[in-house]
Specification:
Elements: H1 7-13, E1 34-40, E2 45-53, E3 59-60, E4 63-66, H2 71-91, E5 97-104, H3 112-125, E6 130-131, H4 140-147, H5 167-184, E7 195-199, H6 203-214, E8 218-222, H7 226-236, E9 239-240, E10 253-256, E11 275-276, H8 287-295, E12 299-300, H9 303-306, H10 309-319, H11 324-332, H12 334-348, H13 352-362
Parallel strand pairs: 3-5, 3-6, 4-5, 7-8, 7-10, 8-9, 10-11, 11-12
Antiparallel strand pairs: 1-2, 2-5
The chain binds 1,4-dihydronicotinamide adenine dinucleotide.
């Protein structure tokens, strides 16, 4: 086993924003039930498996494979993402709790299959309290490796059945959310001619661009990968802007599909969109940023409400329930939940972010 986390050194090195304020729970949230630090010297595995809440069922959430500046940032990410999964799974009415795993990318060379096999053993050690799947940086091939060690994994393509990469389902959920938001907040009956800024043309962003283009939306796009941007220009007639300009683009809708914490004190005053709905997890840097958006008259549809399509898909796959059309129908229900949220906002006078949080927390009970 590796040496334990050097907390003192990590604390000195870490910026304040990356340090969890408590190891037992984030501010104003229920504490995490279990957090496993799993290390394996032979493969270089350093993983954090965070089980936030299992009131509705076993904790279900993807596995992120990422380079972190320090181990505390990785821990902070795992805690925030796991808690987000509790809210996401509850709002999606899934019989699962919230959890997430973070694998710290080793600095030098590593054997990817051996690393994910070691991660699979860590998942197995939780005896079903946590079920994993893909997230940023992980692939269906990685999940197949994990599957050799544990049955508590999903997001694996199966012959003649739905399953595998959840990102098209995530994109569909974001798309129907944008449709609902445009109808209810922008008072426009269709997406024809609606201008949408897309930050990130990755697995989800690309599928979302396809759906939006087909519906007649005008796309403004940015990605650090110039090839993806050029492809979007060619295929969708998208307007390309720089990665530092996309948040302030002159559009009706902003769809963040890359990074977390993009809605913050610096970016919010510059936004020109009236509606924000995208796939990226943890888009609000702080709860108060949700209030500022609302004061500016911008409707923010919370990430964990609109991006649940992927978990709905992998959850059905895990339970071996239904078929492709049933998954799509279940994902499409996100549209109704967006409408219900906006109704609740009107009635209760809350911001969408605070209202969704209260709504989801009221559902953190046995499904
Ligand atoms: P991805 O890694 O395939 O795509 C991310 C894209 O963003 C890449 O094309 C990357 O080049 C681009 N990017 C990175 N930094 C950027 C920047 N500063 N400006 C503009 N573009 C930038 O990831 P994926 O799977 O598409 O996920 C996107 C977001 O949605 C992530 O935050 C993820 O956690 C979240 N999400 C994804 C789900 C899924 O089913 N894949 C499910 C729920 C949430």
């Amino acid at each position: 086993m590796n040496a334990p986390l050097d907390l003192a050194r990590a604390l000195q090195a870490a910026p304040a924003s990356s340090i969890p304020s408590s190891l037992f729970g984030l501010p104003n949230q229920a504490p995490h039930e279990r957090v496993l630090l799993a290390a394996d010297e032979q493969t270089g595995l350093k993983a954090i498996l965070a089980v936030h809440n299992t009131a509705r069922g076993p904790a279900f959430g993807g596995c992120r494979f990422w380079s972190y500046d320090n181990e505390l940032s990785a821990l902070n990410d795992a805690l925030r993402l796991a808690q987000g999964m509790s809210l996401k799974n509850a709002l999606a009415n899934l019989p699962f709790g919230g959890g997430k795993a973070v694998l710290i990318k080793p600095a030098g060379d590593f054997d990817r299959a051996a690393l994910f096999a070691a991660f699979g053993r860590a998942v197995a050690s939780l005896d079903g309290a946590y079920i994993t799947a893909e997230d940023v940086g992980t692939t269906t091939a990685d999940m197949r490796v994990v599957q050799q060690q544990t049955a508590f994994v999903s997001g694996i393509p199966r012959e003649g059945a739905f399953g595998g990469d959840p990102s098209p389902k995530t994109a569909w959920g974001v798309f129907v959310s944008i449709e609902a938001g445009v109808r209810l907040h922008l008072k426009r009956e269709s997406l024809d001619g609606v201008r949408v800024a897309l930050q990130g043309l990755g697995s989800v962003g690309w599928h979302l661009a396809e759906f939006l283009h087909k519906a007649g939306a005008k796309l403004v796009v940015a990605d650090v990968d110039a090839a993806k941007v050029a492809r979007a220009q060619g295929m969708f007639g998208a307007q390309a802007v720089g990665i530092h300009e996309i948040l302030a683009a002159d559009v009706d809708v902003l769809a963040p599909c890359a990074l977390g914490a993009v809605l913050n004190a610096q970016s919010i005053p510059q936004l020109r969109a009236q509606l924000v709905a995208g796939a990226a997890n943890n888009q609000l840097a702080t709860v108060e940023d949700g209030d500022t958006l609302h004061q500016r008259g911008i409707i923010y549809l919370p990430d964990y409400l609109v991006n649940a399509g992927g978990i709905i898909s992998v959850a059905r796959e895990f339970r071996n329930e239904g078929e492709e059309s049933a998954v799509m129908a279940e994902v499409t229900l996100i549209r109704d939940r967006v409408a219900e949220l906006l109704d609740r906002v009107r009635v209760n006078g809350n911001t969408p972010a605070r209202e969704a949080d209260a709504w989801a927390r009221s559902k953190l009970v046995k499904a």
